Amino acid sequence: MQDQLVIAGKAYSSRLLVGTGKYRDFAETRAAIDASGAQIVTVAIRRTNIGQTAGEPSLLEYLPPSQFTLLPNTAGCYTAMDAVRTLRLGRELLDGHDLVKLEVLGDPQSLYPNMPETLEAAKILVKEGFKVMVYCADDPIQAKMLEDIGCVAVMPLASLIGSGMGILNPWNLQLIIDRIKVPVLVDAGVGTASDAAIAMELGCDGVLMNTAIAAAKDPVLMGQAMRKGVEAGREAFLAGRMPKKLYSATPSSPTVGMISGSAQTKAA
Predict the structure, then answer these.
(1) Contacts of 66 by beta carbon, 8 Å cutoff, 6+ apart
(2) Which of 121, 153, 122 is nearest to 10 (CA)?
(3) Could you give the 3-state DSSP secondary structure of residue 2?
(4) I need a labelling partner for 16 at 20 to 30 A (CA). Which of 7, 113, 133, 261 fits?
(5) Strand partners of residue 87
(6) pTM value?
């Protein structure tokens, strides 16, 4: 595919990124991710075993780094330094892996990003050589600040993590898309394939999701649906939708050479 997602200099044919939490087991995780076609998968360092717990099944046995780009994340972190320490551990466990997802949460109820702590953590991580993809509020000013710090992608939420409420503020997302040069990916709140399609139709470079697939009645089938939603939305964006016309209709069939009512009367 020529239309590829490029993050930190690496190209991906899939614009769908998926998480690895909340599945029944690692086997279901692998099956759903295969169905989604995702090439980048996020891993919560504080919650998922990728080698730090000896004697327990490791996610890497099912999602080996040779087949997927792993994206260690800081889920569950509430301060900048906690997030920094977590990603330093992830880099050790993954032999120097530097592409990471930063998220610093404000409270355990809303899981809304704490932006002052997020900005502070981003500064430290970029200085330490990490390639930072960052979960953030849908604020175009703060998104630009993250780009200026050196983050390789900004990931504004569509709605609260795990809510499935879809895109609640498309106008703010559009402002971010229009102002930011690094990839913009919707992160959090997607509930179904139409939400993913809408994000892509707005011009987002990709979509990251976890609960929408893992919490579906059939995660494997939902993974497949999300893949199609992302692809359809991207194609619609590239095609360029027709303009909206308020209180104005246009016939879908040609009117040139149309038989008039008077001609029909004469023929009769």
Answers:
(1) none
(2) 153
(3) coil
(4) 113
(5) none
(6) 0.86
Cα–Cα nearest to 73, from 27, 17, 150: 17
Q: DSSP string spanning 168-193?
A: S-HHHHHHHHHH--S-BEEES---SH
Three-state SS at 137:
coil
Measuring CA to CA, which residue among 23, 67, 16 is closest to residue 44?
23
Encode pLDDT of 5-34 as tens digits.
999 999 999 999 999 888 888 889 999 999
Q: Could you give the C-alpha distances from 144 to 148, 174, 232, in angstroms and in order?
A: 6, 13, 28
Instruction: Please write the tens of the pLDDT for every residue from 66-88.
Output: 899 999 999 999 999 999 999 99
Place of tokens 């993050």: 7
Catalytic residue among 10, 22, 101, 228: 101
Active-site annotation holds for 244: no
